[in-house]
Amino acid sequence: MLTHALIGDEGRTIELGWQDGTRTRFHAMWLRDNALDDKTRSAGNGQRLITILDIPADTRIGAAQIRPGALELSFVPEGRTVSFPAQWLSAHAYDRVELRKGGWTSDAIERWTKTTMQNSVPRAGYAAAGHDRQTLREWLSAVRRFGFAVMDGVPTESGALCKVSDLFGYIRETNYGRWFEVRAEVNPSNLAYTNLGLQAHTDNPYRDPVPTLQILSCIENTVEGGESSVVDGFAVAEALQTESPEGFRLLSSYPARFEYAGSSGVRLQAKRPMIELGPDGELLCIRFNNRSLAPTVDVPFAEMGKYYAAYRRFAELIEDPRFEVTFKLEAGQAFIVDNTRVMHARKAFSGTGKRWLQGCYADKDGLLSTLAAIEHGFREAAE
């Protein structure tokens, strides 16, 4: 509930008071640019119908009136009156005084370790997720919160993993194809196609943009060993930052280089930090793949020794068993990982028996869009 609206700075700003005693300030230009009326935004899709140049540079608030559940503002010199829901203003307030330390994550993200996750791996049944929106909502929400989830009851047929992707989005095709096989090969083009163990890693850091989701589906698994494991890179980054702020600074300030040239006609290269932060310090992405790391040439000579020490310590923490959650995929099971956050690994397995997995890539924006649409539908139904 709004308690007062005080226009200031000759109409260039306004201060709003709320029932809980807090106060938030807004700029007239910001409010006008974000107006919700049908002349400013399309009623069909919410996109803007005007540009910043359509708004007078000397836009000010001429009058303000508190209405039930809303704030009504009149802008000059346009002479336009617009109503803003109080709830919308509260949700979009930017007048904050707290300074967040670099490496922060949103409330939608929950970091985890072996202790908190080993016995509570999020999972759902494929059939239930395909027919029940609440089940799908919970599974997608788990991927958003924890960065990974398991799905049971996936058809044990080639290409079935695409049906998992179809639940929320689309396959991202690469030079590996629409999907790729993960089983031992003679003269493999990638170490994933052997029976060797693989260090925890994120996939394809040599791509720009990197695939944001990976799905691995098990069709057959009768080998000894070959367990899958996942590591929360955000939790590891937090541990590094707590232990060595300087190491965290180095890995988040300087770019690493990654490359892949294992297939004929393919030569992929990218340059990004191992720990990527947004301009406001938000932890956005982890890139870690020893197999694809190219020579680092973007770190000054004076910092290279410390950079490599930080890289080594980051790798040690990633290998620390306290961060590792392990499970063995059986036929008909799949797991999905947020490839910008969660690293996955594989234990070595015997040469007898068969282990046949298939993998594919998808994009997180599709998953988050589907989840948001489901959540919006649930809210509308509740109202």
From TrEMBL:
UniProt-listed Pfam families: GBBH-like_N, TauD
Top enzyme class: oxidoreductase
Residues in Gamma-butyrobetaine hydroxylase-like N-terminal domain copies: 10-89
Coiled-coil stretches: none
InterPro entries according to UniProt: AlphaKG_dependent_hydroxylases (IPR050411), GBBH-like (IPR012775), GBBH-like_N (IPR010376), GBBH-like_N_sf (IPR038492), TauD-like_sf (IPR042098), TauD/TfdA-like (IPR003819)
Any Gene Ontology biological process: carnitine biosynthetic process
Record keywords, A-Z: Dioxygenase, Iron, Metal-binding, Oxidoreductase
Record-given protein name: Gamma-butyrobetaine dioxygenase
Phylogenetic placement of the source organism: Bacteria, Pseudomonadati, Pseudomonadota, Alphaproteobacteria, Hyphomicrobiales
